[in-house]
Design goal:
Chain A: Keywords: Membrane, Transmembrane, Transmembrane helix, Ubiquinone. The complex is a heterodimer. By secondary structure, chain A is mainly alpha-helical. Chain B has a 3-stranded antiparallel β-sheet, with no helix packed on it. A two-stranded antiparallel ribbon of chain B has the order 1-2. Classes of the chains: A mainly alpha, B mainly alpha.
Chain lengths: 536, 545
């Protein structure tokens, strides 16, 4: 048994505790030590995640590097971890993004003079410890092969996330920023907690049904094997109810229209780094879990509900894009754009074709990288002017060309420009959907057009045109900020032209998932191939 | 045969009353505690005033810890499992659930007594340390006598023997195997509690009002219980729980003297309903919950914590025994009713808590909601259900004690600042205390990795396994509502601006600190590594009859 996976999860967890316990103080030196420790921990985690990816064999077993420790025997719960292609890809994404988020938010937790004497002295420690705690819990969620363990961390990550949203804002809010922020934090928590509790009922239900048939376990491989081999038969009504319980939680987390309304608040009010953490990392747990748990555990119900879910995701694609076009606030615009993208991801998953699902998995990774680039640059822009309103900017490309250039790349990646990473995944999702549901595939294509609108209009309004008075003298990106953006831009380009390493890793897991739901790709309709012989 | 049964049958012909055989060893937890209570009364009568507080604390701790050791020894000797048995001629049962709950009650009481003795929170008067209890309970609030007593720094040290008597009753309550013993235990635990509620040093009128309300309603509930007992005796000709079950099942011979009433189902059902009312009142289930917020708010906070934790544990223990030992054959009759009660309790407790503006009232309504969650485990009617309820009570007791102990620390010049607006910004002034309270609230809300989640999972799982899936769904939905008000307090503590003249957090002595630390430890321990205690509860889940 290898300890690589548990080490990958344990390092940030221990790091969070250590960071939180570092000596308090408002001095610059103390703060710098804290940040350095936290950053070092996240880089170490990245190293471990890279080791996981390196030792993962794409052609091997579905779950590799597995570990299992007895946790709560009374309920048949093991602390079981295992990496499959999809999980490994997302583990890598998380491990890459967290150090960058920390660097981007380097000064977000410095106490501002204006915030008064009641300010806690442990603010910096708290901020970085919370980020590490979120990372640890997300990593466990991606690697857990026990339904209960997944549930526990899926739910527990809400707490550090909640304090990150509520406790640390970008100082661009209005006079009632604190109230807005705590509203956003509570909304985030209540939506997700409700989703999680509904899932809890379904988790218990699943266990009861499984225990009745002699499968008293929460182990995912055991359950999926039992289901696909017919040893565990969940009757259709129960299966639909359980599926809905799980799916509701994931749809809130993802978030899918119409359960999305917490996302713009949460992303708008928190720091840019936290917003990236929400949309690029935490929300991915939702879509990841649809793929792994909904399809694997409830194959028949998944097929039953797939058309309805496709319609909802289609609405999400168009609605998110339309609302994004109308936004006045940069960060809320990015949030609505993400809702549109989550629509694509969910569509790819429930189209139930191999292209659609590998596309969806790539989409999770690519959306994470491109949105991180876009959002973090937007955060740098906002921190310079102290405003989130699009109308307060104009002509930035003349004073800060590098900032404007990277912002453009982020925007172009979001609208899936060919050559950049998201194009590959969006194309795969659309093709995968089209082969089974042509009408939905065609309508979804309009999402791309709308994406071009919101992304380019944002660039045009903020970066081009005459230089606004408020923008004059705006400094360009600093070395720290460049260090954040450069890897993201590089990854966007690299995965845009050479996605093979990722697809090789992901495809076997996708095929396995499809075989669990007993779905094969529709036979291609090829007029040329059909009468090819006659032409000769 | 049961003595009452025998007397009724013999009609007074028996030549002599046989001396009952009493197993002192197995009753030792209760005997030790009652003994300590008597010693406490003697100390109260004969010791000089300045020595009393410390001595009483020592006696109480010795009694409670001694009782706990006795429980552990009994459990180690197998009295919870293989050697479980009926004692004192069948009127007391020492078995797994009884010993488990006695252990929980004794530990809770130890920690509660520590918070009683806290003397650092109130400012000293003339050099005398004072505590949370009235200077002189008999003095009229606001009168000259009260002022004198306060000036002299008097303390109501009677609280310690009163607590010990209450604990003794609580130990007997879940262990009593006949309805009369159960009634006696109910009274022994209730009467001291009524008094203890009236003993607050500050806001004495509120405290006395709480005591009167609790007393009147409690007396009513006791009367229901007693009436139910009488009706059941009429039905079954016995008050032994196991024998009632036999009569219900139709396997027991009919007593000739009671042939007219025996097997009259009206007596049985009405009697059962009345017993249930008496017990549901004690656990604070809707619709018998209305005393809870007033009493929890008015009582001295350490007493509120003790009541919320220990009384609930004892009453649920008695309820489990009653339903599982005496009325398993009637479960098709009582389960639907208990379904309704559980749903009402969860929903009403959660919804009313949302509107509360006072921390103690909020905790009171939250305890109502938790009673509902525990009831879902009781309804499972199997061993898993019993184990789940036992574990839940263990988890819940320590969170509750810890939460009330934290409440005692947030103070302004008028004493405890329990209004929620006073708690705004507490997280910025005292991050540690606010973090601890937040942990307790998260445990109440049932967030994973805390004891509250494990407990909730256990009862819901037992309920779902017992075919009560709708209850589980109502349970998770009311958990979501409940989460709203717990989170509201967290928001207030961490994200709101502090009031300029807000309360300060008093620095407690090691006594209260121990209670809080223990609460934190148990909350995290039962959340992260619950296996040992789940095993313990599971092993202890078999009732003897």
């Amino acid at each position: 048994m290898s300890y690589l996976l548990s080490a990958t999860c344990a390092v940030p967890a221990v790091g969070a505790v250590v960071t939180a316990a570092l000596p308090a103080g408002t001095g610059e030196a103390r703060r710098r030590t804290t940040k350095a420790v936290a950053l070092a921990v996240s880089v170490a985690t990245l190293g471990l995640a890279a080791a996981v990816a390196a030792s993962f064999e794409p052609g091997g077993a579905r779950y590799q590097l597995t570990e299992s420790y007895s946790w709560i025997r009374s309920f048949g719960i093991d602390f079981a971890l295992g990496a499959d292609g999809i999980g490994t890809a997302l583990v890598l994404l998380t491990a890459v993004l967290v150090p960058l988020v920390m660097l981007a938010g380097w000064h977000d937790a410095d106490p501002a003079a204006a915030e008064g004497s009641f300010e806690s002295k442990r603010r910096t420690q708290g901020f970085f410890a919370l980020i590490l705690a979120v990372e640890a819990m997300v990593l466990v969620s991606f690697l857990a092969t026990d339904v209960f363990v997944f549930y526990v961390f899926f739910e527990a990550m809400l707490i550090p996330m909640y304090f990150l949203i509520g406790g640390f804002g970008d100082r661009a809010g209005g006079p009632d920023a604190a109230r807005q922020r705590s509203y956003a934090a509570v909304k985030f928590l209540l939506y997700n907690l409700l989703g999680g509790l509904v899932m809890l009922a379904a988790v218990i239900g699943l266990y009861v049904v499984a225990a009745d048939q002699g499968q008293a376990t929460f182990g995912l491989p055991a359950l999926t094997d039992a289901i696909s081999s017919g040893k565990l038969v969940i009757d259709p009504t129960a299966q639909r109810a359980l599926f809905l319980g799980f799916f509701f939680a994931f749809a809130v987390k993802a978030p899918m229209w119409p359960l999305h309304t917490w996302l713009p608040n949460a992303m708008g009010e928190s720091t840019a780094g936290t917003a990236v953490l929400i949309t690029a990392v935490v929300d991915k747990v939702g879509t990841f879990a649809m793929l792994r748990f909904c399809l694997g555990l409830f194959p028949d119900a998944s097929k039953t509900f797939a058309p309805a879910i496709l319609v909802l995701s289609l609405i999400g694609i168009v609605y998110g894009a339309l609302v994004a076009i109308g936004q006045k606030d940069i960060k809320r615009l990015v949030a609505y754009a993400s809702i549109s993208h989550f629509g694509f991801i969910i569509m790819g998953i429930f189209a139930m074709t191999s292209q659609g699902q590998s596309g969806a998995t790539l989409y999770m990774v690519n959306h994470g990288i491109s949105t991180a680039a876009w959002m973090l640059v937007a955060g740098f822009l906002i921190s310079r002017r102290g405003s989130r309103l699009i109308a307060d900017y104009g002509g930035v490309q003349k004073v800060a060309p590098v900032l404007a250039g990277t912002f453009l790349i982020g925007g172009l990646a979001t609208l899936s420009l060919p050559g950049l990473a998201p194009f590959v995944s969006e194309f795969l999702v659309l093709v995968g959907t089209f082969t089974r549901y042509p009408v939905i595939g065609v309508i979804a294509t309009f999402g791309i057009v709308l994406a071009a609108l919101y992304a380019l209009m944002l660039y045009q309004r903020t970066m081009t045109g005459p230089v606004k008075e408020s923008v004059t003298g705006m400094p360009d990106l600093k070395a720290r900020e460049l260090a954040v953006v450069a890897p993201l831009v590089a990854l966007t380009l690299l995965l845009g032209v050479y996605p093979q390493p990722l697809t090789r890793m992901v495809n076997p897991a996708v095929d396995d998932t499809l075989s669990q739901v007993h779905r094969t790709d529709p036979a291609p309709v090829h007029p040329v191939a059909a009468n090819g012989g006659e032409q000769k | 045969m049961s003595p009452i049964h025998a007397l009724a049958a013999a009609g007074g012909n028996s030549p002599s009353i046989p001396a009952p055989h009493v197993e002192y060893g197995q009753l030792s937890p209760m005997l030790v505690v009652f003994g300590a209570a008597l010693v406490g009364i003697l100390a109260e009568a004969f010791l000089p005033r300045r020595l009393r507080a410390a001595t009483q604390l020592g006696i109480s701790l010795a009694g409670l810890v001694g009782g706990f050791v006795a429980v552990v020894v009994l459990a180690a000797q197998g009295h919870a499992t293989t050697r479980a048995g009926l004692l004192a001629m069948g009127s007391v049962a020492i078995d797994g659930p009884a010993l488990f709950l006695q252990g929980v009650i004794l530990l809770t009481a130890v920690l509660a007594v520590l918070t009683y003795a806290e003397g650092r929170l109130e400012p000293r008067i003339n050099g005398h340390r004072i505590d949370a209890f009235a200077a002189q309970a008999a003095a009229v609030p606001g009168g000259e006598q009260e002022r004198t007593a306060t000036r002299e720094g008097l303390r109501t040290t009677e609280i310690y023997p009163l607590t010990l008597f209450a604990v003794g009753g609580m130990l007997l309550f879940p262990a009593s195997n006949d309805l009369l013993t159960m009634f006696v235990a109910l009274e022994v635990l209730s009467l001291p509690l009524y008094l203890m509620c009236a003993l607050a040093r500050r806001r004495r009128l509120l405290s006395q009002e709480a005591a009167v309300k609790y007393f009147l309603l409690g007396a009513f509930a006791s009367a229901f219980f007693l009436f139910g007992t009488a009706l059941l005796y009429g039905y079954a000709g016995t008050v032994r729980l196991g024998e009632i079950a036999d009569v219900v099942a139709g396997t027991a011979p009919v007593t000739p003297a009671l042939a007219v009433t025996t097997q009259n189902d009206a007596l049985l059902l009405i009697g059962l309903a009345m017993l249930a009312v008496g017990l549901l009142f004690k656990v604070g289930a809707v619709p018998f919950h209305s005393w809870t917020p007033d009493v929890y708010q008015g009582a001295p906070t350490p007493v509120s914590g003790f009541m919320a934790a220990a009384t609930k544990t004892a009453a649920f223990g008695a309820m489990l025994r009653l339903f599982y030992v005496a009325f398993p054959g009637l479960r098709w009759d009582w389960r639907p009713v208990m379904w309704g009660v559980a749903i009402l309790t969860m929903v009403v407790g959660s919804i009313l808590a949302v509107t509360q503006q006072d921390v103690k009232r909020l905790l009171a309504y939250s305890s109502v909601a938790h009673a509902g969650f525990i009831l879902t485990g009781l309804i499972a009617t199997d061993r898993r259900g019993v184990a789940a309820v036992l574990f839940y009570l263990l988890a819940y007791s320590f969170v509750t004690l810890g939460a009330f102990a934290v409440v005692t620390l947030v103070r302004d010049s008028k004493g405890e600042a329990t209004h929620l607006s006073n708690w705004a910004g507490l997280g910025r002034r005292s991050p540690l205390l606010a973090a601890v309270f937040a942990l307790f609230l998260l445990a109440f809300a049932g967030i994973p990795l805390t004891s509250g989640f494990t407990g909730k999972f256990a009862v819901f799982q037992a309920a779902a396994g017992g075919g009560a899936t709708p209850l589980v769904i109502v349970g998770v939905l009311s958990s979501a509502i409940a989460a709203f008000f717990y989170i509201r307090v967290i928001v207030l503590m961490f994200f709101s601006d502090p009031q300029p003249a807000g309360p300060a957090v008093a620095v407690p002595s090691a006594l209260t600190a121990t209670t809080i630390a223990f609460g934190v430890l148990v909350t995290l321990g039962l959340g992260l590594l619950p296996q040992y205690f789940l095993d313990l509860a599971s092993k202890a889940s078999l009732f003897i009859r």
